[in-house]
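Dear support,

We are seeing what looks like truncated structure output for some complexes. This example has two components. We would appreciate it if you could run it in full and send us the complete token output so we can diff it against ours.
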Amino acid sequence: MIRYSMWALAGLLLGAIVHLVVILMVPAVAERDVWAKVSELDAVERIRLIPSAVVGGPNSFDLDPALIHAVCQLDLRDGPGELEGELPASFWSIAVYQPNGTIVYSTTNRAASGRRVNLGIFNPALTRLLAEQQLEIEEGLLIVESPGDDVFVLVRLWPEYPELAPRYKQMLEALTCRVLR
Amino acid sequence: MRFVLGLIITLSVALVTGFGASYLALEDGRLFGALRIGSWAAWPSAGSGSVDPYTMAFLARTGRLQLGRSEGLRFTAWSDSGGTPLRRECRYTIEGTTPVAAMWTLYARAPDAAVIGEPSRRPFVDSVNLARRADGAIAIHVGPGVRPGTWLATPGSGPYALVLSLYDTSVFAGLGATLDALPVIEPEGCE
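Here is the complete output from our reference environment:
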């Protein structure tokens, strides 16, 4: 009996190793990660609405059905990214994601000045240029530093009443999202 | 023979604990990484710059667009206040208060992330379009059949989760809001 409990104990230790390997391997083997799914939306340097989740339909980004979402992909190798435009007075928030789904920066309407959005996204090389004042930027630009070159921006917007949704969607689509070359 | 039997024991224990613990850790954060309050679980570190390996694996597995730390916090509950898994054919009342937030939303989510509801109604409840009690507390009825007051419909059958998203919440600021202030999910029988 004691002999078998030693075998079981060895099994537990091995199980702990299996567990750690599984946890560390999951990000590498996951096929449809966030970046792959966002890429399917054809949102490179343009803002695209993510179709609202309908009852019973797929919701692959696991998004809140109460909100409207728009996304835009940027490649910072060519220059700093910019998200610019006007949003309604309702609740909205902006998040800058890395390809693995972690968030570099996020903000909400409460932190922004007025309804205007003017976000500049810089990779480390561009940030250095910025610090050395070798880059011309607009005044009032909110500066976001990204550790990598590939990022995507997600804007969430809350229509307080369903009647507001069509107009809010237009406002989201009117945002400018581009790389400044 | 004994060696083979021992080896079988070792390997089966290793596989069950290794994969079992990974499943529990990632499925709803039962083991690590998640913040748990009553039936509600959230992944607060998912929205910050520093992400632990569990949260990273959770993000990769679900492929979801989680909320940034300044955007808010999203809680998911798979069971009622007594720990029994939520089922669509059962009735519940969500009662209590919510932490300070610019707004919040509540919806029912199937295991495959699909939104649950009646096609003719909005499939969610939010902090504005809601009848409150005199003391400001919420009381949301959840279940398959029509209920008085604020009702979140869960037609069909099978397990599901309730998702409570607090937007622009001061939960992280440590001022004015305590995490104990999440509402409780009281079961009221099944059909």
